[in-house]
Amino acid sequence: MTEVLEAPAEATALAEHGAPAGRTNAAGRLLAVLDAFGPRSRALSLSEISRRSGLSLSTTHRLVHELLSWGALERDANGRYSIGVRLLELAALAPRGLDLREAAFPILDDLHHRTRGNVHLGVRNGLEVVYVEAIRACATHPTNGRIGDRWPMHATGTGLVLLAFADRELQEEALRRPLEQFTPLTITDPAELRRKLAQVRQSGYAVAVGQITLPDLVVAVPVYDPFGDLAAAISVVVEAARAKPQVLVSMLADASGEITRRLAAQSGQRLVRAVPRVRGFAGGHGPSGSPVSPGTTVAPRADTAPAPSAVRVSASA
Fold it and tell me: Which residues contact 141 (CB under 8 A, 6 or more apart)?
């Protein structure tokens, strides 16, 4: 039997906080509690969970206790709650999570060492991009991106790529929604975002400056599965002052193609068609400073030294 809300006040709270429809039963309430957490809300008090989920304090207390007992939540010495390791174990079973990360990590790690930048692997979840892998550059210009972070697609390089190659209906839905601003450079005008997405589709890659943090420049490209369908996007974030976007585009394109080949080998599939490539760009220089022609592949250098203090960011970090 479907469980209904215990009090009209709780239903009002759900509506006021914009909780998704269908969360008036037991399962919906549990999901509302978990949904209260996010990249900028990693540790919450009981009252904060109640407010963010739109549930009464008594209901929140009961559900949090159940989730705590099961391992979905953890409680620290200060009485604040965070996502538990049990959910990480389940998340690792997601096909777009573990398999994709296993195929991509060696390539992303190499990309990180060669660029000395922050590297992300993102997949689309609704109208957001979720990082399923993140490697942070501590020695040069670290960012706060972590595994499990989710961001609006319009504000990140991986998100722009995933949105640009999504179906038209989803693009229009994203364009109809308010575009959250993180810096003065964040794209918040739907018309500007529409032009940006068209540019990404034409070129096959995204370049953006200061969308979430002002000193940063991000370059991102799509990653395709063995059947030629969009599977994810990868990006490198570096300090804008030292960035060479053309070089990063070529390096990312090579990395994307290698991830696709590893996915094919991992699943025993043969590539249905050639891995799509980004369109050529005018000019640029390779890692050694030599000119890069449009469409040129920049091969890894055998003498490239690893970036010092490289840290792989884990979900528990």
Answer: 117, 118, 215, 216, 237, 238, 239
- Look up the CATH number of the domain holding residue 59: 1.10.10.10
Rounded distance between C-alpha atoms, residue 176 and residue 211, angstroms: 19
pLDDT-derived band of residue 39, with 50, 70 and 90 as boundaries?
confident
pLDDT in tens, 144-154: 778 888 899 99
d(CA 223, CA 9): 46
Looking at 43, 63, 90, which one is the last position of a domain? 90
Structure tokens at 281: 């760009």
The number of residues making up the chain comes to 317
Q: How far is CA 190 from the centre of its chain?
A: 21
The pTM of this model reads 0.67
Shared-domain flag, residues 191 and 80: no
Range of the domain at 122: 98-312
Mean pLDDT of the chain: 80
